[in-house]
Amino acid sequence: MQLTSAAFSGPDSIEAFRETYGRLLMQLEIDPLPGVPFELDFRIRGVNGFSIADGRLSPTTNRHTASMIDNDDIVLVHAVQGHGALRQIGREVDLPSGNATFVTNSEAGEFLGYIPSHLQNFRFTRKRLEGVLVDIDDGLLRSIPPDDPTLGLLTRYAGVLNDEEALALPELRDAIVTHMHDLAAILLGPNRDGQQIASRRGVRAAKLHAIQDDIKRNLASRDLTLDAVAQRNGISAQTARDLFREWHTTFTDYVLKQRLAMAHRKLLDARFAESPISSIAFDCGFGDLSYFNHPFRRRYGARPSDIRAAGVGKTP
Known about the structure:
- By secondary structure, this protein is of the alpha+beta class.
- It is about 40% helix and about 20% strand.
- The chain has twelve helices and eleven strands.
- α3 packs across α6.
């Protein structure tokens, strides 16, 4: 879903946006800073039990009033760029670029945006966090610095919401939601024994996601090895093997699957219509054409030439 002030025009555009998107959808009273053009553009993605709103906002005062409270979700507010402050439950926290903090939807609160900002709001289900935390409220409105390693893992792992293939499988969707809550629980603290499980589970899932991103960036390289990927990500090759095993796959199978998918996309892309199939295979990291053809037919049930013929004229 895309929320943008650009969708409204005319003399009453700001008030129309505040009512339609602000009060009804976002549960916020949005007050633009006087004399500053109002701009808001957010993309919202989510699965059952977790969502992320990522976008940009001009200087504003945003109030979550008592009359707007309709859930008790916990929200991690991350200032990717910009500067603001949050006030809630008698506390106030400064939010410069890179910093983050947790707030709750069950209490009235206020966000002050001093300058144009890029924000990420991660929304978690309170009930899921209560399973591993002693006192959620104690962790609210505490400053989380930009170099916090768990914050880095969480923000990077959230990129998995762009993986349509993973989201298509219910068991993977559930795992993603669990891992995001695990990482949030580590950031919130304090802990009980359950958080040790959450810590291991969430951090390992985030590390695997980082490895998978590394692989996708280097698919064309014929020097793509487990040792090299593990070294770039600061872990041992054995740890990397274990991470893949926990998801019932291997490094080799994952690389092959991603290279085949890359080749499949190119075969359907009109921009590569004149490229020999052997060149496409080579550019996707396959050094042996026979090693490309056989697994391609197993995965897609057709020869590469048949896939190309079926997709002539298509563009991504």
